[in-house]
Amino acid sequence: MLTLETLTNKNKSKKRLTNSNNSWLKCMILSKSKGLKTSKKKKTLYDINVWKRYLTSAGEERNSEDIRAKDLSVHMPCFFMEIKKDGDQYEPTTLTSFQRSLQ
Which of 41, 50, 88, 100 is the most exposed place for a label (fewest CB within 10 A)? Predict the structure, then answer.
């Protein structure tokens, strides 16, 4: 179920759409996608799905938002070293794009 949440931070009010399932990812996508072209939104969604597939293949059962920073610091370098597309390595520019999408 989607709900609209109002966040208050230093006299600024922000609204975000949340979902009980993967709310962190959906909020991140919404905040990153505000003002972005449709192709960039699709690219961000694709990158997040690649990240989620990697976590599953690495045996990680927690949702992305539940993984501690200490564990992320182990997963992230392995992700960038191990991910492949159809058995081939991604180009360096694509890896940079993944990094920017996941920040």
Answer: 88
What pTM does this model have? Answer: 0.61
Confidence (pLDDT) at 28: 57
Contact, 65 vs 22, CB < 8 A? yes
Whole-Å CA distances, 10 to 15, 16, 36: 14, 16, 26
Picking from 20, 21, 40, the residue whose alpha carbon sits closest to that of residue 29 is 40
CA distance 28 to 50: 16
Spatial distance between the Cα atoms of 52 and 79, rounded to a whole number of angstroms? 10
User: Please, what sign has the CA dihedral across residues 72, 52, 88, 101?
Assistant: negative
For 102, counting Cβ atoms within 10 Å of its Cβ (0-12 exposed, 13-18 middle, 19+ buried), the class is middle
| Cβ-contact 1, 20 below 8 angstroms | yes
The separation between the first and the last C-alpha atoms of the chain, rounded to the nearest angstrom, is 26
